[in-house]
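Replying to the earlier thread about multi-chain prediction with a worked example.

Input:
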Amino acid sequence: MLRNSIIKAIPLALAGVIAVAAAAEARDQIRIVGSSTVFPFSTTVAETFGKTSGFKTPVVESTGSGGGLKLFCSGVGVQHPDITNASRRIKKSEVELCAKNGVADIVEVKIGFDGIVIGNAKSGATLNLTKQQIFLALAAEVPVDGKIVKNPYSKWSDIDKSLPDQAIEVLGPPPTSGTRDAFVELAMRPGAKSFKMLADMRKADKKGFRKISDSMREDGKFIEAGENDNLIVQKLQANPSALGIFGFSFLDQNSDKIKGANVAGVSPTFEKIAAGDYGISRSLYFYVKSAHVGVVPGIQEYVTEFTSEKAIGDEGYLTDKGLIPLPGADREKYRAAAANKTNLTM
Amino acid sequence: MTDAIMNSKPSTEIRRPTLTGERLKKRYAAERRFRLYGLGSILTAGLILVFLVGSITGTGYTAFLQTYIKLNISFDAEFLDPAGTGDVAQLASADYGGMVKKNLRDNFPEVTSRRDKRKLYNFVSPNAGFDLRTMVIDDPSLVGQSLDLWIKASDDIDMLTKGYVDRTLEESNRRVSDTELVWYDKLDSNDHIEARINTDFFLKADSREPEEAGILGAVTGSLLTLVITLLLSFPIGVMAAIYLEEFAPKNKWTDLIEVNINNLAAVPSIVFGLLGLAMFLNFFGFPRSAPLVGGMVLALMTLPTIIIAARSALKAVPPSIREAALGLGASPLQVVTHHVLPLAMPGILTGTIIGMAQALGETAPLLMIGMIAFIVDVPGGFTDPATVLPVQIYLWADSPERAFVERTSAAIMVLLAFLIFMNILAVMLRKKFERRW
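Result:
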């Protein structure tokens, strides 16, 4: 009996595998990949779209911006994704990769902003930081008296007398994260550039400048806390002297536990980020493969839903999820681009 | 032979132990200490387990409840069926969200400002409209009626009911404002707020709205994946073990295979995910995010575990059984299928179940093949996009909404329940069928 069942099971399993191998063609469900920052917004739209449009709910994968674009650019055909989310703009090299694999027509849609917050526990001191101070606290090497030296600061008050007398301890995202890229670009580089010496260096030797501006210190003052922003929030609560770097939506949801530091005198609030006053905010995008529109049903309708006022407008349902809307004119522009399938221009 | 040793002269003087009381005491003390160390280790492990399970249950049990608000809902024909056709297509496409909003305004006539209205709309789940839609489509005679219904509350209100909102904080620091608290208390004093068993948690798939999110999709995905894993890894693993143990010649090649199998058991699981991506997705062109591919990748991962367990179970069958069967004229195949395999089965099954339990808890290899995804539909087959329980836990743990914290813990409780069940099954099988020689 046993022998029979075993011997029967093997061809059955193999036959099953071969039978479905052919089933990979035609697809009636949109596939979306990309940034984990855009993921909560993209999934909200996908769910609403699935419930209201009569199309199947799109499948949204969280692969990171870079990973998403790589999958997106790997070719045209149902085995490749239709849309990719990104928490940064597509790079020139990625457009070239796309073109090489036959993905020539890409529609770019900007959906809103995301603020990056430097926060600490409610019980801690409220910090007023400048980008220069952020750079001095977190860079591996900083200029002191005209020389580039290993970061000598161990307390905030060493950097500036106005800052609290407490040890520098900052929890932040790892290099694989889009939040880290954006933080480096929006806070560290401007902070570095504010030194004349480094600004001169940037003109002469961009690579050397980037090495200084982009390298975070590795002496335990900056701690890579993994991709999970919830984890950072919990650690901040347990340790009131630590600071953390995370997305605005986590401050929004946990405003009873943590608060954001002011950057250049501006507090990280919904209104200030939307107005463009808060210095560390980035744009969020998604990219659509034009060749798939009309092949996979529902793409155009999904994009219409995503760009509609009721989703990304000033009071759209995505603002409840922490998305910071674009100015009205920009929303119009991207809505039109999406409707006309206007090609991306770099 | 023992006599020979006894009688031979010792080359050196035998050191007789000094059997003094002090030495004996030392030995007893060492014995006691050793036992205490053992007991201490078990207690430490037990404490850690109690702490872990306790903290998960402590944050998770509230997810099995869901707040409902009693509202008077009038199914206005004006919203649902202005032309009065009674057509189901018309009923299905009506503006139920608008109807819910209007009913909220009717229940709170004192709310007039636009700001306050928005707050009021936030009281009920954004999905309440869809629930009412289902009701109307099931029973079109509701149109025109007015009923007192229990409507699912939004996650913020749910958190308030469960005591996760600290009312003593400044208004700007809470997710629920003072005006909302006033409304809430009014509803509460009229007994219009109720916490009920959260059946949706078990009957729905993932959602971006915490109050709508459930684990059915992930549990189904896990089951489909494990079916594939079992179908592939069990027969292949057992056949490989039988061949290696019973038939294969002992030479360099079989040694090499054995070393490789033992090595494979120690390979980090993400490597199997990369292999799956390169082979099953890119080369064979299987669909992404499918339980079929997930199951195949996990089968690769479980194979070494099953082979090793099956081999040791086969090895434990005494050679006398084989020899007796052969002596009575059984062929080698008959020896294996009639005697050795049935006797080894309990051990093989235990190994298989433990391998399956491992596969159930795995996320890393599934990352590469697209199973870490947001999927709203419950998968209906092996090629439908699906996700699995541990992935669901990971996705919820990463969500900003506060209400997902309790749901994460609740999903962990469900996963633990499955694992405990599988392990108990393994122990019971062993107890029931185990033979001692």
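The first strand of chain A starts at residue 31 and ends at 34.

Feel free to reuse this layout for your own posts.
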